[in-house]
Task: structure prediction
Amino acid sequence: MNYIDRIQPIHLDILKEVGNIGAGHAATSLSTLLNRKIDMKVPNVRIVPFAEMMELTGGSEKEVVSVSLRIEGEAGGNMFFMLAVEEADRFIQKLMGDESFTFREHDTHTIGFSAMQEMGNILSGSYLSALGDFTQLKLQPSVPELAVDMFGAIISYGLLEISQYSDYTIVIDTILTETDEGDVETVKGHFFLFLSPDSFPILFKALGAGYDK
Result:
C-alpha cells in the first residue's frame, strides 16, 4: 500500500479547512490590491488519478495559464495553480477593462501577465501561510513562475518526483468571484498539490490527524 492509500477523509477535510482560511486571506489581499470585491472559496479537496487530473482542464493538450512554485522547508513538494486560458483571459479582461487582452499573445511584459503573476503569488502564498499557521511547520515558497502552455507540458515537472511512488495527486478546487456594481464574474481554477512522500507523515502529524506508516 503506497502513501496515498493511507490518506483518510479527515485529512482532506483538514486540507479543505486550511484552504478556505487561506482563501479568505487571499480574497482580502486581492480586494485591496485591485480595489474590487473579491470572494474566494475552496468547495472541494480530493485525490484524483493522473488520468482524471488531465481531464480537469480539458486534457493534456489543453492550453492553460499556470503559476507554479516549489514548497521548501520542513515539508516539501510542488504546487500549481491553473486556469484554462479562456477563464484567465476573462478574469484579466474584466480587471483591466480591456476585452482585447489574451494570454495567447505571449508578451510577458504586459500588465495582464503581471496581474496574473501577482494573483497566483497571493493565492499560493496565502494557502501556504495558512498551512504553516495550522501546522507550525516552516514552509517556504520559491519564487512563483508564470507559464502559458499545454497542461501536460506544464504538469510534467510536478509528476517527476511523485510518479515514482503513486499515480495520484491532491486537487484543491478554487472559485474566485469578482463583484463590481452588481456584475458578478466567476472563475474556476485548480491547485494541484504534489507533496513529496516523506512530507505526508510530517504534515498530518503536525495537523493532529493520524497517519499510519
Notes: The chain has a mean pLDDT of 82.
